[in-house]
Each structure stands twice: as structure tokens, then as C-alpha cells.
Amino acid sequence: MKYNQIKLIINLHIRYKSFKVHYNEFCRKGKVTMNNLIINIQKYSIHDGNGIRTTVFFKGCPLECTWCHNPESQSYSAAMMYNSEKCTGCGRCAQVCPQKGIVEKDGLFPVPRDLCDACDTCADFCLNSAREKAGQAYTQEELMKELEKDKMFYEESGGGITLSGGEVMTQDMDYLMGILKTCHKKGYSVNIDTCGHADYSRFERVLPYVDTFLYDIKHMDNDKHKELTGLGNELILSNLKKLNQAGAKIHLRIPLIEGLNTSDEDITDMAEFIKDLKIVKLSLLEYHSIGNSKYDRIDMEYEGKDYKAPTQERLKQIKNIFENYHIDTKIGG
Q: What pTM was computed for the model?
């Protein structure tokens, strides 16, 4: 193939990508809405509720937890992720970037954050998959089509769909209600994984269509909660009480990080709060560092470099404290 032919193909592709970006923006303001970007649809999930489930991870969260293992989910906007270890410095991305913003630096081609609009043209031309887009727009019909591919697993295992994030309860409510009502009509079980930081009116709207809320408690001390997540816990605890009063099925989950929320005082404060709630169960989640490598790929700094999980002995002690309050507790999801 001649050079001019290759150049023509590249130019046509760039024009197509530009059209696609503007079309998606139009959709987000209309049918698709402003903030329903999805970073992952995880198949065969067994830790987000009963049975085999498909978990949808929405993009955007009001909290900025210092241990977050999906940092690409925090922003509500699409973004390009860049893996420098896979980059060979070929420069193809710089040649095709519509913004002409990608430049060589020390033999590599990082994402120009001030210019990048996440059109992902560069990812299409990257031979080594060093670049990928975090945040894809789906219409309700497109998302349901993807979810229904696994309906056989839902039916056979007693599983279903889990909507997660980011924070699903801060997404566009019309979009979310459309998905929930369709799932309800088709008989699919739906769980919502939430940090609880959203206006309670949103929870009221989804209540009739949600089987179980997977609800996080991170710390009972408001100031400490703000230090660890960027926001206080008043709204989170208030919503938890209201959901309990409304008769919602609630599966509480506590991410445990040694030295941050694992003291006897921390655990006792949580147990005192939880003891009068009618919850399905409480899960103790050990801290892990699986998502740490993502921070460099999205030019964020990981603040939890020194974080550690509690020892197995300490986890058993924590479990015993909750069980002394007659709270059904398990270690793990």
C-alpha cells in the first residue's frame, strides 16, 4: 500500500473519530445523558451479591478515598489511561492525535492532560495497547443488550446484575431508572453497590426495583472520614438509617485498613451504630493494593503507599467484636 493511501486512511479515520466524539457528546446531552459513562462491565462476578452476576461500573464518585482501587472511576469525565511500560515510543499516537498535543518525552508519549478530550484515536493506532479510554457511553438499549447476554447465568445461579462505580447513585436518574425498570420487568435481580453519599430522594426512587444495597461504612468519626475520603459521613449514615426504616435489604461492607479504622474503639463505634439496624449481613473487607498501578496510568498520586491489611488474627478479633453485638459477620465479600 502506498504512503498516500495510508495517509488517506488515517485522515478518514481521524474524521470518523471526530464525528463520533461530537455524536457521543450530543447523545450525552440527550438520550444518553451527561453522566452515564461506564468504565467496565464485569462478567461472572461472584462477590457482588448472590449467584453469578454481571457488574456494571459507572464512572464518577463524590468520594476520593485514599485507598481507592479504581481511581479512573472518580472523575465523571472520560479520560485516557497510559501504560508507559507497554509504550515502545513508536510515535504513532502523536501522528494521529486530532489535537496535535501528544509529544515525545524521554522516549515516551504520555497523555497531554490539558489538551486531551479522550477521543481515543491514539488508542486505536497504538500497536501495544499502551493507551485505553476510561469511560464509554452506552444508551439504555446498548447496556441492556450487553446485560442480557448473561441471562442464562442469572437464571441458573440465582444471580443477576449489580450496579456499581464510582457511585451509581449520583448518575443520571432518568437513565438509571430506565435500566432498573427494564430489569424489573424482565425479572432480573438488581443490587446496587453504594457509598451512600447521594440525596435520599434518589434512593427512594430506586427502592422498588432494587433487591439488595451493598452499602459501605468506612469510619464513624466525621473528621476522620473527611480526611480519608474528602467528605464527611453525615449524609451516608443518615441515608443508611432511612433505608433501614424503609425496609430495604442491606448488606453492609467495611473496608479495613490497619491503623485507620481497625482499633477496638473504631470497631465498637461501628457495632454500636449497626446493632439496631436490620441488615442481611456484614462483610469485613481486607485492604488490598491491586489497583495501585492504575494511578500512574491516569497521572494521579496514590496516597496509600504505606497502607496494610489487618492480620488474620486481628480480623478474627474484629469479627468477634461484631458478633458480640449479635451482628451476622463474615470475613470477605
A: 0.88
